[in-house]
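B., you asked whether I could sanity-check this one before it goes into the benchmark set. Here's the sequence:
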Amino acid sequence: MLRPQAVLFDCDGVLADSEALHNRIIAEEVSALGWSMDAAEAERRFIGLSWRNIVPLVEARLGTGSVPSDFVEGVIARVLRALHEQVVPVPGALDAVRAIVAAGIPVAVASNSSRLELTTKLQGLGLTELFRGRTFSYDDVAAPKPAPDMYRAAAASCGADPARCVVVEDSVTGSRAGVAAGCRVLGFAHASNPATLAAVGAEPFHDMRDLPGLLGLAEVAA
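And here's what the prediction gave me:
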């Protein structure tokens, strides 16, 4: 197994255990517009999508103009209030990131959340310095995931060839972005069906503690 030139992480569901928070808030906000759903349905329909990409789906269901112009800003404000109280790491994720950095491999993070959300999550996780100068949100690229823009930018920030990078994702949307960027994609199958991740070109795995070994860094993990 070739040692990767860089490892490019998604954030929600990979580093921060924030998917349940996101799903609850977006379900409540969309329900208030007239499309009744719970957190489980919000996850099924919207996992991996940016807030902005959710808006057309809601308007397709409820009609043009059904989503207020400040809808996304309101959702972000609610998420930020919750994140300022606590950011919970995905079990094993922080140790995995530190093991990769200790092995001398650059890391970057690419998230379909807003820049302010991403900054808040990294601060809460204590990862700001490890990712400094190599953080990308949907505010930083022309097109969010599943477009490859974000992962190509993340690879470039590490001085790496995308073909020699590994992307760590947990959603079909993000996995498609990593594959489209030309990266090897490891699909963390804690919320998505492993077969669904594999169908779009990701290699499913189930425990973040296994990540260093999957990168050929078993001796570091040990």
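One thing to flag: The first strand starts at residue 6 and ends at 9. Otherwise nothing jumped out at me.
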